[in-house]
Design goal:
The strands form two sheets. A nine-stranded mixed β-sheet has the order 14-13-12-11-7-10-9-8-15, with helices on both faces. A six-stranded parallel β-sheet has the order 3-2-1-4-5-6, sandwiched between helices. The chain is of the alpha/beta class and 488 residues long. Helices cover 36% and strands 19% of the residues. The mean pLDDT is 93. The protein starts with 10 loop residues before the first strand and ends in an 11-residue tail after the last helix. Helix 2 packs across helix 3, helix 8 packs across helix 9 and helix 8 crosses helix 13. 6-O-phosphono-beta-D-glucopyranose binds next to loops. Belongs to the glucose-6-phosphate dehydrogenase family.
């Protein structure tokens, strides 16, 4: 069997914000897993850079603890951990001043891939880019990785793009949307473009509607300050749900290469129609009546009693092109919902004529692609209910839960960040957003947000552990459709 792990070239990866939440929760535990898997070569070096003063030993200790806390729950191999920690060093740096830059330069080696991960507030992206350049830390092949939020509207995203473009080519800029690193999200492309079965039906003629749900059970947690300035539209729809929609709706690219894929996604975003006010439902979660203290309502959680920011949004949109013009796309995402569940459902049309008569009821094929948890794909097929009693029809799933189909190894879930960081080192931008894509996504998002701000719209309360406000269900019911149940 061909090895599934292909080691990447030796690299120097500098993580600005190296002591931050993302670095400790995701980036470094992810790198450790790639190290254990043999994908990160032992000659690779990771340099944490942040404001705090500390030495290498203290940084290694901090990251060792983070790996124990945020790793995958399996017992940590202590020998491997010590060897991995040896690859780490630390530089105290001032992103806007001069401190630390010479020391950082002293850590960089020649002839290895250089990558700089900006795991910091977007306000610092421009400063970091400028200083990297001023101190001669980058070459033509160096890469920078930037996190979301990439701007909060079109103007700020444009500005960020310009700030980075002053020092880096687009081919050097890796804008992360971690949803693109999820296993099943990539599988969407495999299912669509690796099978003959679906593509002929993948259009308005056969698809009644498409729904995309990303439901979370967590609330805003300790991120109230950030979240209340963003809301679900900026935090989830403009990026993650938009990317899912693109992969579902795009035309087949000529090749599976970065620009061919991103060109097709961009066309989808540019073809999105403006969203009508009555096709939007926003919500804010209320306190859990059973446990009001441990689960505060949204406004308490963000410490803003008058907040009008949404922790839930449902909307209906259309794509103005030949393939999709007559097929609505319903998007829904929220915090503190009844279950953690991300699912895309392609709901096919009724058969043109039922030979079984009215009493057989309405049956539709649904292809549901489950992103998390329990990744898998199900196709519901209508069959005869077994046994006597006439021709009664039922829907049963053709089920391909990856864990069942591929066994424990096949279903081994490489975290999105692990995959994406390895892609940066390999120099593959397919799963990263291009600057024009991000701008197009904001160009669609901005008028929607402006619209509700100008109307003085107040989000509707919804119960924690629910499927969102009733109005969201109505949005579908008005069209004689229903949301799929949010199940764990
Ligand atoms: C992040 C959002 O980008 O994605 C968070 O900022 C959200 O608010 C998270 O919770 C969801 O990611 P995942 O991978 O848990 O679905």
């Amino acid at each position: 069997m061909v090895s599934r792990v292909i080691p990447v070239d030796p690299f120097d990866l500098v993580i600005f914000g190296g002591t931050g939440d993302l670095a400790r929760r995701k980036i470094l535990p992810g790198l450790f897993r790639r190290y254990c898997a043999g994908q990160m070569p032992p000659e690779a070096r990771v340099i944490g850079a942040a404001r705090a003063e500390m030495d290498d030993a203290a940084y290694r200790e901090m990251i060792g603890e983070a790996i124990a806390e945020f790793g995958d729950g399996k017992a940590v191999d202590q020998d491997k951990l010590s060897a991995f920690l040896e690859t780490l060093s630390y530089v105290a740096i001032d992103a806007r001043g001069e401190t630390g830059w010479r020391a950082l330069a002293g850590h960089m080696r020649r002839k290895v891939v250089r990558a700089f991960y900006f795991s910091v507030a977007p306000g610092l992206f421009g400063d970091l880019a400028e200083r990297l350049n001023a101190h001669g830390l980058t070459d033509d092949d160096s890469r920078i990785v930037v996190e979301k939020p990439f701007g909060r509207d079109l103007a700020s995203a444009r500005q960020l793009n310009q700030d980075l473009a002053a020092f880096f080519d687009e081919r050097q800029i890796y804008r992360i949307d971690h949803y693109l690193g999820k296993e099943t999200v990539q599988n969407l492309m495999a299912v669509r473009f690796g099978n003959m079965l679906f593509e002929p039906l993948w259009n308005s003629q056969f698809v009644d509607h498409i729904q995309i749900t990303v439901a979370e059970t967590v609330g805003v947690g300790g991120r109230g300050d950030y979240y209340d300035k963003s809301g679900a539209m900026r935090d989830m729809v403009q990026n993650h749900l938009m990317q899912l929609l693109c992969l579902i709706a795009m035309e087949p690219p000529a090749r599976f290469d970065p620009d061919a894929v991103r060109d097709e996604k961009l066309k989808v975003i540019r073809a999105l129609e403006p969203v009508q006010p009555h096709h939007i439902v926003r919500g804010q979660y209320s306190a859990d009546p059973d446990d009001p203290e441990s689960l505060p309502d949204y406004r308490t959680a963000v410490e803003n009693p008058k907040s009008r920011t949404e922790s839930f949004i449902a909307l209906k949109t259309h794509i103005a092109n030949w393939r999709w013009a007559a097929t609505p796309f319903y998007l829904r995402t929220g915090k503190r919902m009844v279950a953690r569940s991300s699912e895309i459902s392609i709901v096919f049309k009724d058969t043109p004529h039922s030979i079984f008569g009215e009493e057989a009821g309405r049956h539709r094929n649904v292809l549901s692609i489950r992103l998390q948890p329990n990744e898998g794909i199900k196709l519901s097929v209508t069959i005869k209910e077994p046994g006597p009693g006439g021709m009664r029809l039922i829907d049963v799933p053709l089920d391909m839960t990856f864990a069942d189909a591929l066994g424990p190894d096949g279903a081994e879930n490489v975290d999105a960040y692990e995959r994406l960081i390895m892609d940066v080192i390999r120099g593959n931008q397919t799963l990263f957003m291009r600057g024009d894509e991000v701008e197009a996504a904001w160009a669609w998002t901005d008028p929607i947000i402006e619209g509700w701000t100008n109307r003085g719209d107040v989000p509707k309360p919804y119960d924690s552990h629910s499927a969102g406000p009733d109005a969201a269900a109505q949005l579908m019911r008005r069209d004689n459709r229903d949301w799929r149940e949010v199940t764990p």
